[in-house]
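Q: Second attempt. The first request was missing the SMILES, so the protein and zinc ion are both included now.
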Amino acid sequence: MSYPLIHMSRSNVKHRLSNFDFTIMLKRKLVLPIYHPASAPVCKCGTTHDIYGHHHFRCVRISKKAAHNYINEYGLQPALQQVLPTAGIITTSSIVQTEAPHHITNQPLLRPFDIEYQPNHTLGDSNLPPSQFAVCGADITIDHCPDPPSASALEDISSYTANAERCLQAAEKRKFTTMGGTVTANTMTREDVLRTLHTDAKHLQMWAICPYGGMGPMLRRFLFGEDPIRPLSFTANRSQAANMYLASLQSSAPHGILPLANSSWSSSKPSHQKFYGHSYTAPTPKISFLQQFGLACTKAFASHIRRPIRTQRAPQASSGPTRAPPGLNSPFSTNTGV
Ligand SMILES: [Zn+2]
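A: Got both inputs this time. The predicted holo structure:
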């Protein structure tokens, strides 16, 4: 999420962040406190927020649905709509859809895909094997980050990275085995849904996103072509989840779309067109995608942190200092000009 903080053209109004959101997200990026310890607000679950704002994403009483929907509609949809035709994965007239119903005959309002498209791997410079699927897409989940590493773990950043991947991979696995809340009172299990999708040649992936914009292994394979450090495994009673997951690791599954888009664009762009998306700060399809995705995450998570102002109890009175040190104003302060 560095791009929207330091490297996107502010001449585009949509790229601008309010001072309030910029301050919150810059502090989050730098792992600086966003609350003073003596005046941190109390969540509706009764827990006092930690000074870094992690509890906003860990508490089960705080819904992340608004942030989820914003990232899906204003980050992933427009970014994929632009980059998938460039990569030769869909035609220029094909629409990337969000929350489409009617995938399951007896549960027409069930929407197993947050985002979906119709792949056609024979387009452009795409070198992927022909797609076996009529529809590909993903169910998106926002997960919390792992606990901060200990001082000794900081000496080995690779172990912390692996821990973060395992955390997001656990979120992927939960999505494969539980239904989520897209509709209520449905009577189908996750295995039933996956079996129906598999029969209809529809491919569902689970894309996990952390509150810092980090991506789970399935999303990273789709975007960058990276394989997971250790593939997921499922118990015998989750055969449909295993089938769908293994399908995502096949060479015919969509993967590495950003390198593919970079390659296709650089070989086919007009000589006078220097920058993808007409911005010198986004010279390639990959950077353009990451900027749009990062901007949506930044706005969604800043709004998520601000939102509980209306739903949580006010900060409790404290006998200690209530005024934050310079630069550490609480987002709950009435002073929005931080
Ligand atoms: Zn809470």
